[in-house]
Amino acid sequence: MELPEAVRSVVGDESVAARVSLGGEDLLLVTPTRTVVYRAEGLLSDESVREYGHDVERIAVETKRRKAKVRLDYGTGGEQSLSIPTSRVDDALHPILAGVLNAAAVTDPGETVKRTFRFSELTVVVTSARLVKHVGGAVWDAGHEEFPYDDVTDLRFEEGSHGTAVVLRMGGRQERFKTPNDSARELREALVAALLDHAGHDSLEAFRAARAGDGEGDEAEAGEGMAVEGLSPLGSESPESTDDGQSGAGDAVTGVDVVGGGGESSPEAGAGANVDTDADADVAAELAALREQVERQGERIDAQRELIDQLIEELRRGR
Q1: Domain extent for 233
Q2: How many domains does the chain have?
Q3: Residue ranges in the chain whose pLDDT is less than 70
């Protein structure tokens, strides 16, 4: 689709690396040096085009039910923010982050940002040459860590009840971080594929064999976890804090996947054993009727709220 004239005049001869719809005719476009947001003429404002340079020091995201705000911190240059629909935030953040990593020389020319995984306190970026990890409230800042695939001698995944640990071994040191179990298989797919493609191998076994000459001793950890190349979709639940004190991922997106203790008994076991009088049976019926009434009222309130939100959304179109 041809770009609006107002956008073409701003972009000029730069190539457009990514294009994300923000609803209606509104667009977010990413070039090698900047992000461009186009707002079509609407009820609340005239047609407009805004530019956001990629020479930022920090990226943060505030997510609400309908709207998300991406904050770009330019240090002494101040801060800019752009508002986008929450449903489009991940689609928009991925190319923005890719542009920022390139501008900050975190990634090399020609290096591709494959996938971006964002949890509440953990951001993981898989590129064609390295893994970039950031822990903290921001999505990215100077406190990030990067692990070039050329330095990796082994990659393993250790499944647990509260999350799956990604274990990168680089010579004599090890990097470990947890991801939600629901997200682990998709992250594993992206990371394994990028690592093997970069190293030129068909399997992790072949990769390990080729890197065995680095003097890496894996015997002690052989039973700790199984490196599986199977995959699964990105989930929404998150692990608890990792062993090294790092905050668990996914709290802002979803809840924690909690596994209960052992035993076959349940809180419901034996319930009702003493409820055999007419009085107790009447109380149970009244409580059930009251619960049903509250649920119906809640449904009506939710429907009205959805209607109001939809009306606002149609008027504002993500602005």
Answers
A1: 148-253
A2: 1
A3: 1, 213-279, 306, 309-311, 313-319
pLDDT in tens, 116-166: 999 879 999 999 999 999 999 999 999 999 999 999 999 999 999 889 999
16 occurs within a structural domain:
no
Q: Write the secondary structure of 248-299 as one string of H (helix), E (strand) and C (coil).
A: CCCCCCCCECCCCCCCCCCCCCCCCCCCCCHHHHHHHHHHHHHHHHHHHHHH
Q: Which residues are CB-neighbours of 90 under 8 A, at least 6 positions away? A: 116, 118
Q: Note the pLDDT of residue 291.
A: 80
Contacts for 284 with CB less than 8 Å, ≥ 6 apart: 275
The answer to whether position 230 is within a domain reads yes
Q: How many residues does the chain have?
A: 319
Q: Is residue 95 part of a domain?
A: no
| Per-residue pLDDT reduced to its tens digit, 227-258 | 223 223 333 333 343 444 343 333 333 232 22
Nearest to 242 by CA among 232, 256, 229, 254: 256
Question: What one-letter code names the amino acid at 55?
Answer: D
Give domain status of residue 10, yes or no: no
Q: Are 165 and 216 in contact (CB under 8 A)?
A: no
1-5 contacts at long range (C-beta below 8 A, 24 or more positions apart)? 3/27, 3/29, 4/38, 4/40, 4/47
Coil, strand or helix at 182: helix
- Judged by phi (left if over 0) then psi (alpha if -120 to 50, else beta), residue 90 lies in alpha
Give φ, ψ of 287 to 5 degrees: -65, -40
pLDDT of residue 11: 94
